[in-house]
Structure formats: C-alpha cells, structure tokens
Amino acid sequence: MGGANLANSFEAAALNGQVATTVSMLELDLNAAHFKGLSLHVVFMLIPMLHDHQRETHGRILGELAAIVDAGGLKPLLDSPRYPLDRVGEAHARLASGQATGKVVVEI
Fold this sequence. Notes:
Blueprint: H1 4-12, E1 18-21, H2 31-36, E2 39-42, H3 46-50, H4 55-70, E3 83-84, H5 88-97, E4 106-107
Parallel strand pairs: 1-2, 3-4
C-alpha cells in the first residue's frame, strides 16, 4: 500500500508485524510503526532492472507473479462503480471523498 494507506497499514498491522510497500515517495510519520515494533519493507523492483542488475532474476519473479495473477491467486480490490474517461472528475471526487473501497477504475 502507499500514500495514506501506508499509515493505515501501520495501524492495522499486528504487534511486531511486517508492512510492505512499493510506494515510498511521501513524507510519513513512523511513530505508529515504531511503537508497534513493525518491520517496514520498501520494495524497489524497478531499480535493479533499470541498472541491469540481476535482470533475469527479476524477470523470473515477475513471470511467476503473472502466473499467480492469471491463475486467480491474486485479485486487486476494485471500487464500484467504474468511470468512463469523460467522467474522470467524478472518479477523482469519489477517491478524494474516502468512500472508495480499493482502486477507482477509469476506463478508456
């Protein structure tokens, strides 16, 4: 999770739990994580690939992940309803309101 959801993840995590994210371009108060003894894992999978470091290994990992997704083992949480591109303002308003559950989908 990223953004505000990352702070929410700290609150939801168990004592001495682990939180993982691929999003870290934010300022965040780590007090909640500290007081619960959480481990925070920030995964930058793209960086090694950009620097041609273990590219084959990362390609294999992404391939395995794609197979899990294709088999239905990992499903994104998508908010309902979906919005056509010409109603993107409504989609943004839903997201900003905090009423969305999961990702807000804008179809093109």
